[in-house]
Amino acid sequence: MNMENNTKMAITRKGLWLIVTGVLVMVAGFILMIGGGSKDPQVFNEAMFNFRRLTLAPLVILCGIVIIVVAIMKRPKDNSENDK
To answer: How many structural domains comprise the chain?
Structure first.
């Protein structure tokens, strides 16, 4: 039984960089979502319902999730054919 095949990582270096990029994109989406609070709870603040918080930030977070899923699901190139 060949033990060399069991020592390889499932996620490559490029995959790890894609995961880090996806997490950073998600953090950017959460940063876009913050702010707009009112100092007086009796006063309605219309800034809570603007385009950035309701549309752009969730789309950015969704893009980050897609990047992470692609990084995890991406199959590394198999070099075992050259080793045979």
So the answer is: 1
